[in-house]
Amino acid sequence: MVLNIIDDICIKVAEKVTPSKEERDKIERLTKEIIFKLVNEASKENIDAEIRVDGSIAKDTWLQGEADIDVFMRVPPTLTRGDLEVKCLNIAKKAFEGYKIVERYAEHPYLETWIEETRVNIVPCFKVERGKWLSATDRTPFHTDFMKEKLNDVLKREVRILKKFMKGTGLYGAEIKIGGFSGFLCEILTLYYGSFKNVLEAASNWRKKQVIDVAGWFLGRKEEAYDLFDENLIVVDPVDKSRNAAASVFESKFWEFVSASRMFLKKPSLKFFYPPSQKILSEKEVSEKLSKANLDLLFLVFGEVDAVVDVLWGQLYKTENALKNFLKANDFKVFRSASWSDEKEVNVILFELERKNISSPKKHMGPPVEKHKESEDFLVKHLYAEDTVAGPWIERERWFVEKKRRWSDAEKLLSFYLSNNGGRSIGVASKIAEKLKKNGFQILSWIEMQKLYNNKKEFAQFISRFIDGRPIWLE
Amino acid sequence: MVLNIIDDICIKVAEKVTPSKEERDKIERLTKEIIFKLVNEASKENIDAEIRVDGSIAKDTWLQGEADIDVFMRVPPTLTRGDLEVKCLNIAKKAFEGYKIVERYAEHPYLETWIEETRVNIVPCFKVERGKWLSATDRTPFHTDFMKEKLNDVLKREVRILKKFMKGTGLYGAEIKIGGFSGFLCEILTLYYGSFKNVLEAASNWRKKQVIDVAGWFLGRKEEAYDLFDENLIVVDPVDKSRNAAASVFESKFWEFVSASRMFLKKPSLKFFYPPSQKILSEKEVSEKLSKANLDLLFLVFGEVDAVVDVLWGQLYKTENALKNFLKANDFKVFRSASWSDEKEVNVILFELERKNISSPKKHMGPPVEKHKESEDFLVKHLYAEDTVAGPWIERERWFVEKKRRWSDAEKLLSFYLSNNGGRSIGVASKIAEKLKKNGFQILSWIEMQKLYNNKKEFAQFISRFIDGRPIWLE
Q: φ and ψ at B402, to 5 degrees?
């Protein structure tokens, strides 16, 4: 019964995500134009570049209406890295003069442009032998070739369904912001397990240190993979046995996929592919939920950070984590935290605290009485100290004392340390610390955030989701 | 320099604690009268009882003005325990007809009476061979004989100084209420180390599993003592190698003596023997200190418990400890607790809480996602539960959820469980549970305790000391 439902759902999804004849024609036309322009410009500059389409367009695994055209410029490894970055980008810039061009940066720079509402990425790389990588993107053409050889039409359909499932459950995308599953990863999983349904069935039983080795690099020597890779999900890159293609999947996303797979198999639904859009709570609803739960939200807000998107998110997550640990180390109970950014002018790091104020004292454990010197030092330090509230007294074999806290207000604590060198000493990431130091920051309560809540729909969605605190596929 | 100060102090203390000629004469006269009466009455009843004085009077180690006359009635071991309890007490009752007589109970019953403002204890026991104990008090005459043989006048003086030091620092008394050092223990320590100052010098270096074996039972076989006794202070009874004469010393009191010894040797002062009387804070001062510290006090108050004093205190401490653990298990932070009793009509158990109310939710950890069945159960339980505040969500490899607490108010929590069978299920001691069940109880805040505070000076002293939270010798 359930199987038929799943098949029905797959049919419906496949129908929607398979590109139409018109879209294919358009993409083909666009691709040819782009290649022509780049080849032309490269020959003018006398650069021996192989211009080729890679990514989901090349492999025919893109989702209807969501085509990105990835064009690679493969230059001889005799060029320097500097040549690669400067010359190739110049060729691309000239080829697309008149179009809006954004310079982007992953492991190395690339260009993004938009042609007929389609995003085009132009990525330079070295044309190397397999394994002799000079830059991270040198692998991509090998990935493309590997997949083109393996994927037939049936598998392509399954890849598309899996990709859509990942999108619907919020698990799609290798970028740092998401920490989810890349398109390539979806292809490998489909190839390895044979179908969308098989992937989900396998995933619902995945364990820690799950190894997926589609090219059989570690056949019969799985232990070696464990030595090489630290992650819980190990998907050995079929063109590079020393790379985990799933290295950028966050641990939580790995387990969210496992759990979403189980849920879908148990109760299949189109909602996993087409989730309801996040309901935005009214300001009043948020306030009520917070006061009912009796929790405090604390927002660290600051402006534009001078970093490309991936670096920005890396810095946000690093800072979020450091500040959470810092608050915990100061006895504030942090239940959850999250980061939000419009990737332009506003960045927000959010902490959910049991209480923003803990004005009660701290019961502080001293040394065992047996330790003469330590006990004496403890007494000297605390007996007549102004911040001693009660004690010292002996409990069982140790000294104890009740101390007033230095920091009873989380807001003041953060303000103080963030004002000092942008919070570098408490783990704020470098570019964010720079920003805080230069342009300052705000530490706000929910009430003070309501203006942003009203002005930025995405922020309101983010907060509404945070308040629920569960993955969208669990609704 | 310090040595001379100590010697000076000892001279002053010894002068004050050595009984005067008048007191000695009075005690001697009283003792003779008491023995005469008892011998006379025993012969009337045809009981072959050896009537003798034991304790500090017999050993000449009592403190001036604080004489208790301990008279032992040693009967043949051919009598039954019942005979011992009934016949001996009847003899004593007849001998002191007309005097106020209180029946008391330690390990077995004894009588307390007051003659010329002097407390007299009449204790029946069996006249057994050493080691063939039939009741706990059978050892006492052996203790007396042992000490009488060993103590000379110099040592008696040192014993008296040590006893006074114990009294002044709140460490004197083997009764459960105190859990401190008995007079006999003070004698053993003095005998073992040779002088008051030597005892303190040794004590200031005492370690865990300190063995004091004045009779040399375990000479060269200290490890055997470790196997036999669990306590940190092991003072092998010189008349019974299987008994730790310090078994009833609380661990905290052991270490308090260690610490007080160090303090005295470092800064000798008469204050250790004659501490200032506890200053009673005004109600307003208490209120201010509490509000400044931002801590809540919670008082469990109930009436007379049907138990002799030692049993009462045992029950109070047991209940205090159980309720503290129960509060902690329900996420209330209990910094300190204490018990107070007038040993008649009012009993109080007191908890110092970070907060009486914790209305914030609880972050509840679920199973690892890897565990399929457990995860499913967790989701079924929490996903749509009314008391789920946020989540469930996945953090690293586990499920988490925010739950509303069942018990956010410590007062209500205690009330509920204490109302159910007197709190037996949460560890309230039997006789107290009986009392709570029969006559009820009150759970009160500081404000509600102010009437008792004004009416009972000792309670006010107790609270004032509790607020300071340090041993009196640390002031």
A: -100, 125
Write down the architecture of domain B364-402 according to CATH.
2-Layer Sandwich (3.30)
The answer to whether residues A392 and A399 touch, using CB atoms and an 8 Å cutoff, is yes
B390:A293 CB<8 A? yes
Cα–Cα distance list, A157 to A16, A64, A142, A197, A246 (Å) = 11, 12, 22, 12, 22
Distance CA B443, CA B449 (A): 10
User: Chain A to chain B, count of Cβ pairs less than 8 Å apart?
Assistant: 133
Cβ distance of A369 and B255 shorter than 8 Å: yes
Give the whole-angstrom CA distance, residue B460 versus residue B340. Answer: 11
Best mutation site among A255, A286, A352, A353 for testing chain B: the one with the most B CBs within 10 Å? A255
The residues, ordered by sequence, that sit 6+ positions from B2 with a Cβ below 8 Å of its Cβ are B265, B266, B268
Tell me the pLDDT tens digit for each residue of B43-89.
998 888 999 999 999 999 999 999 999 999 999 999 888 888 888 88
Instruction: List, for residues B154-203, the tens digit of each pLDDT value.
Output: 999 999 999 999 999 999 999 999 999 999 999 999 999 999 999 999 99
The set of residues, in sequence order, having a beta carbon less than 8 Å from that of A170 and lying 6+ positions away, is: A178, A180, A256, A275, A471, A472, A473
Subunit contact B259:A390, Cβ cutoff 8 A: no
8-state DSSP, B85: I
Residue range(s) of every CATH 3.30.70.590 domain in chain B: 283-357+407-474
Q: Which of A231, A376, A470 is best to mutate for the B interface (most B CBs within 10 A)?
A: A470
The CATH code that applies to domain B21-137 is: 3.30.460.10
- Residues carrying CATH 1.10.1410.30, chain A: 151-272
